[in-house]
Amino acid sequence: MKKIILISLIFFNSLFIFSQSIYVDNALMLSTNKYGGTARFIGMGGALGALGGDFSSLLINPAGLGVYRSSEFIVSPGLSYNNNNSTYIGNKVNDGGYNANINSLGFVASGELKNNSRWTNVNVAIGFNRTNNLNDKLTFEGINNSTIMEIFVNNTIMDTINFDALGNNEYLLFHACVLDTANGRFFNEIDNQLFADSNNFKIRQRKIMETEGSANEFHIAFGANYSHKLYVGASLGITWLNYKQYSSHYERDIDEYPIDNFTGFDFREYSSTSGAGVNFKIGAIYKPVDFLRVGVSVHTPTFYSLEQTFHNEAYSYFDNGEEKNAKQKDQNYNYKLQTPLRLNGSLGFQLGKLALIGFDYEYADYSKMELEDDYMEANGVIADNSVIKDVYQSTHNFRLGAEARLGTLYLRAGGAYSTNPYKYIDDYNVISFTGGIGYRDTKYFFDAAFSQRRSEYNLSAYSIQRNTALAQIKNRLNNFVVTFGVRF
C-alpha cells in the first residue's frame, strides 16, 4: 500500500501529536536532502560523485574539487514550483506555490604546484549550496462522517469540570467557545450531533498545510590532484536553516446536515524553526584507466542546534453570525538534532571528449537520528528517540546522469531514486527526472537545468477509529536553475 501519513494536531506542550511526535517527523524532514546546486549538477541528476569538476559536487564528494585545473566563480539562481493534487472523499483540489531562490554561490581557487612533485594541483573552495527545499502548500477537503472534535471532547472527560486538568489545546478551544460546559461536563455541538445520530452525520472538512523555508550548507573545502590519477578532498560544512509551518483544520456544517446553533470552527497551528549545524566530509577519486573514475566519500552526521517558536489559535462561528477566537502565547523550545551518517560510492565514465556518465549510490540509516534537549530525563525526548529507532530504517539512494558534448554546447539528462525510509509502510519511494543544456568556452559558461521530484502518498487528517477517510496526494516538486560562471 502507499504511505499513510497521519497529519494530526501538533500538541506542542506535550511534544506529541496523535500519531507520533512532531519532532520525530521533523527529524526526518530536516535530515532528508532535496539538493539544489548548480544547473550542471541538477541536469545530471546529482551524479557527480566520481566526476567532480563542479562546485556542487562538494555536496557528494569533496575530492571532486581536486579535478579543477582553473579558478572559477559561479552563481545559480533558481525558481521552484511545488504542486500537490489531492483527492479526499471524492473531491479533488490542486494547490501549490512558487519560490525564487539562490541554489549555489561559490568560488574555487586553483593553484598549480611546480616543485617537481606528483601533486600537480591544490584547490580551495568557499561558498554555499542549497541542501533542502522546504517550501510546500497542500489543501484537501471533502464531506466526512466523522469529526476531529471527538478527540478534543474525549480529552476532557473527567468526573468534574476541572479547568486546571484541561490540556492546553482544549483550554484554548474553550476560550474560543468551541468547547462549552453543561450538565457537569465539557461538550461541543458537532460532537453531540455525531453521537445523537451517527448514521445521519456529515460535515465539511478542509485541511491546509503550508511550509516555507530552506536548508543551506556553507563549504570550506580543500582538494588536491596526485599525478592525475588520485584526487582527494575534505570539506567543513556549516549548515543553517529557517523553516515555518502553518496548519489549519476547518470544519463547518452543511445544509443537509445542520448543527444546532453552531456553524463551524477553525484550529490553526503556527511554528517557526531556525538553527545551525556542522558536518565534515572526506572523499577520494581514483582513475585506474583513462575512461574510468571510482569515488568514495563519507559524510559525518550534521549536528544541529535548533530553536522553535510556536503557538495555536482557535476560531468559532455561530448561526447568529457571532464569531469568537482565542490565541496562545508564543512558546519556545530549544533542542538538538543529529542526522545520520552518509556513505557514498560512485562510478564515472569519460568517453573521450564526447560524453560523461556518472552513477552514485548513497547509504543513510535514518533510525540513527537522535534528538536531545536540556531535559533528557524527560519522557518526551526519550520516547521520541525510541520512536525514531522503531519506525525508520536505512535507505538506498541512486543517482544516474550523463553529459554529451557538441563543441561548445552540452546536453545533459539524469535521474534519482530513493527507497522507503519507513520500516512498516510499503511502497513509499521518491523518483526524480532531470535534464539540462549548457554553453561553455574558455572563460565563461552558462548552464540551465530542470528537475522534477515525484512522490505519491496518503494522508489522514486525524487519527481515530471512526475516521477512515484518506487523502490521496500526488506531489510534483519542479525546479528550474541557471548557472553563470567565469573562469580565470
Explain what you see.
- With 488 residues, the chain is mainly β.
- The protein has one domain (4-487): Beta Barrel (Porin), CATH 2.40.160.60.
- Helices cover 10% and strands 57% of the residues.
- It contains 6 helices and 24 strands.
- It has a 14-stranded antiparallel β-barrel. A two-stranded antiparallel ribbon has the order 2-3.
- β22 (430-440) and β23 (444-460) form a beta hairpin.
Distance between the termini: 54 Å
Number of strands: 24
Q: What is the CA-based Rg, rounded?
A: 26 Å
Uncertain segments are 1-20
Q: What name does CATH use for the topology?
A: Porin
Anisotropy-based shape: elongated
Full CATH superfamily name: Outer membrane protein transport protein (OMPP1/FadL/TodX)
Strand content: over 45%
- Oligomer classification: single chain
Outline the secondary-structure elements:
Elements: E1 4-6, E2 10-11, E3 16-17, H1 22-31, H2 39-43, E4 72-88, E5 91-112, E6 119-133, E7 136-144, H3 149-155, H4 168-175, E8 180-182, E9 185-187, H5 189-196, E10 203-226, E11 230-252, E12 262-289, E13 292-299, E14 303-318, E15 323-327, E16 331-338, E17 342-351, E18 355-365, E19 370-372, H6 379-391, E20 394-406, E21 409-418, E22 430-440, E23 444-460, E24 471-487
Parallel strand pairs: 1-23
Antiparallel strand pairs: 2-3, 4-5, 4-24, 5-6, 6-10, 7-10, 8-9, 10-11, 11-12, 12-13, 12-14, 13-17, 14-15, 14-16, 16-19, 17-18, 18-20, 20-21, 21-22, 22-23, 23-24
